[in-house]
Amino acid sequence: MKKLFLLIIICVGAIAANANHITGGEMYYTLVSQSGNNYTYHVVLKLYRDCNAPPGSAQLDPSASIAIFNNSNNSLVWQKDIEKNPTVTLDLSAPSPCIQNPPDVCYQVGYYEFDVTLPGVANGYTVAYQRCCRIAGINNLIGSNQVGATYIAEIPGTSILANGPANNSARFTGRDTVIICANNYFCYDFSASDPDSNDPSLRDSLAYSFCGAYLGGSPNDPAPDPSSPPYISVPYSRPYFGESPLGPNVTLDTKTGMICGIAPSVGIYVVTVCVTEYRNGKPIATQRKDLQIKVGDCNVADAALKQEYLSCDGFTYTFGNEAPASVLIKSYFWDFGDGFTSTLQNPTHTYADTGTYVFKLAINRGEECSDSAISRIKVYPGFFPGFTSSGICVNKPTQFFDTTKTRYGLIDSWSWDFGDPDVQNDLSDLQNPIYTYSKTGTKNVRFIVTNSKGCRDTVYKAVDIIDKPVLTLPFQDTLICNGDTLQLHASGIGSFSWSPAVNIINPSSADPFVHPTTTTRYTVQLDDNGCINNDTVQVRVVNFVTLKARGDTVICLTDSVQLSATGDGLRYVWSPAATIQNPNTAVTNALPAGSTTYQVTATIGRCKATDDVIVTTVPYPASNAGADTAVCFKTSAQLHASIQGSSFTWSPTSSLNDPNSLNPVASPANTTSYVLTVLDNIGCPKPGRDTILVTVYPKVKAFAGNDTSVVVNQPLLFNASGGESYTWSPKTSLSSDDIHNPIGIYNGSFDSITYRVIVVDENNCTDSDFVTVKIFKTNPQVFVPSAFTPNNDGKNDVFRPIAVGILNIEYFRVFNRWGELVFSTTTNGKGWDGKIGGKEQASGTFVWVVKGVDYTGKSVFAKGTVTLIR
């Protein structure tokens, strides 16, 4: 028994897993005959299957369980399994070349047909078929592979019309092999026909609507005997629902059954269209077509325009194709309807006058994949929407005023949404409505207004609703002199009243005048349509002004000083005002040119008081560090300073020979600023300072050249550097002694000579250097030692050639006894340190060869051995 139960579960699971093959269906019927109150119908169930269903998906069922229910009590009156007729394939085998990457659109359609005779009843019948489940991954359903379907047909009863049962149902006739590309404009024909529409005695008509698809069956019972009505809608996934299965950009024409709009994103969507039959103006039956529509990742060469365009803010408009951009669109042609054209993709055109213009867009004109669209644009600039409001209190009327202006036509409609989140009927179509809010807060009011020329615009405005009107006072406590008059001020929207009504002029205005003889607190009330707010102002009455200025002071000349006064004055004035920053405040700053007496006057109306401040100025101590100067590197400068004061200090002092002198000698290593600070004791406590900059020129770097060797009569070109002028000494054997590059030629009368060159730079700073020349009384050759001792004692550590009379060394090479190259160079004076790869070599004999070119251009070659001694 347990094995049998397990087998049943496995079989049911297998059926559910493979039943997600049906992609849509509909049911319709034809009246075959009538005998008295008995009607014979030929009923057709039409089921769709995707030809490209995943491997393992089931074929259409060989039979379908169909049931008929009496709508009066939903009781079952008939049920039978109906065999399937041969399957028909609907295939879009040759899609348009003007669609890039078109999806495969192919349906296998199964027909289940039967005849049934039913008596006419009051409320008619429902014919039903149920199957689970739909395919997985449907975009607009939740858990679509667990959601089944119910397909029905309605047979009218006699309660609506006596001849209701004598009916041929509507049946959908639109083409099902339609390609829909994501985010592209499309149209899908869900139109239907009604055989009774041609009968003048019946006068049937059809109306279309989107409706919710029905649930049916379950994963555990995928092919049940149909359950009785009513049937519930499938679970739609937001933002989709039965009446908007493809999103807000797709609509259904209720008269033609044509679905058009901008397709949603790539995927599969359940779309159900209901067609209702009307007979003599009364609805008698509704038929349904439930189909899973595939939206592909393709692109269409399409010209699409809205039905109408408006230009209500100017004569200039920028046009564009409403269809998505496509690589298949090669050219554009716009005819603006006023004699002007353009070939731009998004042209901007200015019309010369107002009016309604019919314009046209053509793509790929005269080419493959051409298309065109026609629309109209109404050009009526000068439409300025707007509104104002008054009354801002909760539970009090708020009046809204339309301030829209239009240059052409008349304002002809108003639509208000008062932004009250607590109610649904906060709407009005009046021009100047009144609305009462029940709660405080910011209300986002929306106002849509149109004119007779078709202009339409929306204005959003935030309206703050509060518990009382805003009442603002610039001051709440003030002073007046006894006998004076004071004007009070209040601001807000509404009417004002002041109290007490004593010693007050115009107490019903926002700005009354008062003249109390004693301190009085006045209360102001603001009334905005019964919405009340209150506030107070205290007016203190005095008979005199209290005033005290700061004490006298001494400051350094050219410094500023703060002047201050305390008291109860309402207005202050300082004099003389020429040297005062702001002479009309109690606290201010002054910059006196010398000792000055400042007077301050404080007033309260006609009452006033004065006081003085004496500011004595004392000059700063005088400091003169002298003129800036410059010195050569490692030289000194004599400073010459002067002061007017009692003491002084230098800073820094480390490079001064006597920091206590006004004339010290400065020997800075680098450019240095010396600050001379002077103090005095005659009243100015601040120091006087001056700075002298001693610039140290960069060190002159004289270079005479490296020591060298020549042979007799070999020209030697010197090349000194480091300055602007040069002096050589001695002048012996030199072509010149005052240039940087003299030539020396030697006759062999001495073995060596040392020259000194003095270099002077652009700052007239000097330096000198020496170079020694050895003279050999031989022919040009390369001298090579026979041994060397690389022991790092600084003597004979490197084995190197000594070239005499040689212009350049072509190579100097050293080999070990196995003929391996251990060192090579082309630089005269560069040699071998007795190491190979950083490793010291043992004592032994090595072979060397050298080749060079002498100063006459002749080759010089020599070879020999050298002994390395450790």
UniProtKB/TrEMBL annotation:
Keywords: Signal. Gene3D superfamilies: Immunoglobulins. Residues 331-364, 413-465 form the PKD domain. Residues 1-19 form the signal peptide. This is Gliding motility-associated C-terminal domain-containing protein. It comes from Flavisolibacter ginsengisoli DSM 18119.
